[in-house]
Fold this sequence. Notes:
Layout: H1 25-39, H2 42-61, H3 73-135, H4 139-158, H5 172-175
Helix pairs in contact: 1-3
Region (Disordered): 148-188
Protein name: Integral membrane protein
Keywords: Membrane, Transmembrane, Transmembrane helix
Amino acid sequence: MAESPTRRRLDQPRSSRRFSMEIDPETFGRLSERLARFLGTGTFLFWQTLVVIIWIALNLFAVSYQWDPYPFILLNLAFSTQAAYAAPLILLAQNRQDDRDRISLEEDRSRAAQTKEDTEFIARELAALRVAIGEVATRDYLRGELERLREDLEEPERGDPPRDKTGKRPDKRKSRPKPPGERAEPPA
């Protein structure tokens, strides 16, 4: 017996028979942001005011065009509908802006943390370089040492006494040996 085409197969998913409309949330969000931005402009307020003035003028003075008499119930309905749609659109736009701000803030925080780490690393490297430079003989120090050596090499020719390690000539009175019975004076 052949299987009837109306009979469902259990090994395949059921196809949706309902009408479904797929809306891209990103596209809808961008559209709502544009609309919310437009609702807050002077251009929108100008055109809305102009439409309200024309609406009221036609309904008050043009007897043949009176579709909304004096209490203007239809105009109030239009404003209520506009407010009912405008408020959620504005909230949606604000939520999207909050999400963008949150992402931007997180990126700023991570960038600040990375900058702080980089600054601390550079400070440590700079301190290490200062220590290393402090241990290196400078040009002025080497010049001074070479000048002392040159003077020390020239002094024996002139008959001058050589200098000590600090670069000073020894005092002749302090450098003579003391007689064995004489005691050295204690330092003050």
